[in-house]
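Researcher: Here's my situation. A collaborator sent me these components and asked whether they could plausibly form a single complex. I don't have experimental data yet, so a predicted model of the whole assembly would be a useful starting point for our discussion.
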Amino acid sequence: EGQLLESGGGLVQPGGSLRLSCAASGFTFSVYPMSWVRQAPGKGLEWVSTISDIAGSTLYADSVKGRFTTSRDDSKNTVHLQMNSLRAEDTAIYYCAKDIGGWDAFDIWGQGTMVTVSS
Amino acid sequence: AIQLTQSPSSLSASVGDRVTITCRASQGISSTLAWYQQKLGKPPNLLIYGASTLKSGVPSRFSGSGSGTDFTLTISSLQPEDFATYYCQQFNTYPLTFGGGTKVEIK
């Protein structure tokens, strides 16, 4: 089974930027949509963004639209989340997740990377 | 956005109990529902997709049913490793949404 490994999290001041990366292995990365899901401390899961496989079209939650950008590099089996204008409410563990195929579930998740937005 | 309401939000049960968790969608989503299990400090783990299809490798004591707006996750005989939080997620319409979670605790 495949694996996902996130990196790039850390502490950032409000209004700052951070770029998360997710490295995939063990599956044919280019043919699957990839997503980001976050979880604030002690809270539930929140979908953030999805990037499709072929055309690389992107979808975003309203809470991050215009501030976050998802991209993928199929040559490096990597997906990125560029986060700008960060707010305290963006503080969360950010998980990268692979679509099972057919856009109907996330079957592989990374371990997550923590993003803390605080002054 | 489609809202998913899980109930109960928490429950206490004993090993061997039959446990049922429900997920209600604010509008019809056909069978585009997945269930995940999350243990403390770990990422979610897919259990069921398409409302009733068991992911390969997931124990058969887990089952899912429903379509439209009402869905259930059933654990036929609760095992010690099943104590966790369970989430439903809909894939019918973007933005994708999750239920609020159901925490299954030891009685």
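Model: Some features of this prediction you could bring to your collaborator: The first strand of chain B starts at residue 4 and ends at 7. Chain B has a mean pLDDT of 97.
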